[in-house]
Automatic annotation (TrEMBL), chains A, B:
Transmembrane segments: none annotated. This is methenyltetrahydrofolate cyclohydrolase. Residues 146-301 form the Tetrahydrofolate dehydrogenase/cyclohydrolase NAD(P)-binding domain. Gene3D superfamilies: Leucine Dehydrogenase, chain A, domain 1 (3.40.50.10860), NAD(P)-binding Rossmann-like Domain (3.40.50.720). Its EC number is 3.5.4.9. GO terms for biological process: one-carbon metabolic process. It catalyses: (6R)-5,10-methenyltetrahydrofolate + H2O = (6R)-10-formyltetrahydrofolate + H(+). SUPFAM superfamilies: Aminoacid dehydrogenase-like, N-terminal domain (SSF53223), NAD(P)-binding Rossmann-fold domains (SSF51735). Homodimer. It comes from Cryptolaemus montrouzieri. PROSITE patterns: THF_DHG_CYH_1, THF_DHG_CYH_2. GO terms for molecular function: methenyltetrahydrofolate cyclohydrolase activity; oxidoreductase activity. Keywords: Hydrolase, Multifunctional enzyme, One-carbon metabolism, Oxidoreductase. Residues 11-127 form the Tetrahydrofolate dehydrogenase/cyclohydrolase catalytic domain.
Length: 306, 306
């Protein structure tokens, strides 16, 4: 006899990201044709030979092509100096045919990531990592929001997850995911960049497990971005809660192969939660789609046609 | 027979602020004498006739005098345009005899507070309200931290309140207190601007009362900056917790006089808490002392002698 269980609705990031790319394609085509504009353009800078970085950049370039954004990848040797990178960024900043610049992180250890992020013209900073844009995010001014945080926000909106006055636990305090996430979630909706009005608890590596459980049990939404496999287990999830899994870790399976998993015990938690994102196919594709959105935004702003 | 109760230790902000002013006075005298520098200098801009603003600026000017900072207040009519204010700020930005600039908030309604805050040279922005400095705070770079948040941090340090892995509830999400507070509290201590490694829950006007109670009961530290009288009551405080009251509200007493109170039911909560700040005499004086610290910092940075 079949077993019937109420299981969480899967938040299909892959599908939503596809929808967004289609929407963007339409908007970009229209913008180009109606205003006689050149296509928006994106340059990715990659330093060194990290295979994961190469794969990420490749995905971004494919998405760009799909939506009608011209793109180019510039590769520098891992021996490139900070000055080499800054010179290149400076050239791209001045180049009127470039709308969006992304420097794929991480950069080699002898280069300051912060210096590199702050070197990108804030108007071309489609990753939203420049301190200027982070400051704008703080005060809820319109800006480039880091793509993963923006992607999660978009999923929350499209799946009509309620946030006003709700409790959210964010696990992980990274500057590109956890922190901007907390910023968007807690703040006032009556802003240039509207917030989601939730009560936010920001947990991290120094949050004791029992405290995380105390907060998670009360959470209407849990967003986990830590890279800790099985951090979120069914016993700590409130029935019906929305679980967003930003973690991506490659693990070895029993048969010697590898697979990607998130921070969440998906099988267990999906029997308790109301909504859940899978890994892969959840947040990942949204990050790339949002990068395209930000690039188009940059093109429009630089052209003065927002 | 006398009743013996264990009551909270009072965090004496007035005394600590006095200590800090004395320390600063010594440091500034030394810096001026040893380097043949002119005294650090501070200009306050006040627009309109708000009596509270006038009082605040007066307090700041008195503190400046006490620690050996030259200060000046420039008053503009409430009819001054945004352009008038920006012109003045621009002049002060260029003036080499000015180290710190503060525009007393609020500005009149026809003026954009954000535009004014962003007009101050970030190197002279002793209030830490420029988006550039807020962005630096986000990524834990050395910067001017908004004075009230810096003052609370200093009290926590001087009273040796533990924060590592502890739970903190911040009530109020203002950009000058609640948000920077949350930023300092949650972040990693291994940074240029070291964080306090706490788990932070940021509550605000749309946090339901019962949820606030849930979080507060588990909190090792509660920081309330809302202006809601009696928001924090004894039943929601964990025995031994540290209570920091940033609220200031003027209320009418039964005899028709007025007095200043905070967000915390002081009499009730001090019977449960381990530490508590009074209002007045708690956080208030610290804000002014930290402004002096930031001004001295600005003078040193501009002179290149940090």
């Amino acid at each position: 006899m079949a077993e019937f269980k109420k299981v969480a609705e899967i938040i299909d990031g892959k599908k939503v990201a596809g929808d967004i790319r289609k929407e963007l394609k339409r908007e970009i085509d229209e913008w180009v044709q109606n205003n006689n504009n050149r296509a928006p353009s994106l340059v990715a800078v990659i330093v060194g030979e990290d295979p994961a970085s190469k794969k990420y950049v490749e995905n971004k370039m494919n998405a760009a092509k799909e939506v009608g954004i011209t793109s180019k990848t510039i590769k520098l040797e891992s021996s490139a100096t900070e000055k080499d990178i800054l010179n290149l960024i400076n050239k791209l900043n001045k180049d009127d045919t470039v709308d969006g610049i992304l420097v794929q992180l991480p950069v080699p250890e002898h280069v300051s990531e912060r210096t590199v992020c702050n070197a990108v013209d804030p108007r071309k900073d489609i990753d939203g990592f420049h301190i200027n844009n982070m400051g704008k995010l703080c005060v809820n001014n319109e800006t480039f929001v880091p793509c993963t945080a923006l992607g999660v926000m978009e999923l929350i909106k499209r799946y009509k997850i309620k946030t006003f006055g709700k409790n959210v636990v964010v696990c992980g305090r990274s500057k590109n995911v956890g922190l901007p996430m907390a910023m968007l979630l807690h703040s006032d909706y009556r802003n240039e960049l509207p917030g989601l009005e939730a009560t936010v608890t920001l947990c991290h590596r120094n949050t004791p497990r029992e405290e995380l459980v105390y907060f998670a049990k009360r959470a209407d939404i849990i967003i986990s971005a830590t890279g800790v496999v099985n951090l979120i287990t069914p016993d700590m999830v409130k029935p019906g809660a929305c679980i967003i899994d930003v973690g991506i870790t490659r693990i070895q399976t029993e048969d010697g192969k590898t697979k990607l998993v998130g921070d969440v015990d998906f099988d267990g938690v999906s029997k308790v939660a109301g909504h859940i994102t899978p890994v892969p196919g959840g947040v990942g594709p949204m990050t790339v789609a949002m990068l395209m959105k930000n690039t188009f935004q940059a093109a429009k702003s630089l052209k003065g046609t927002t």
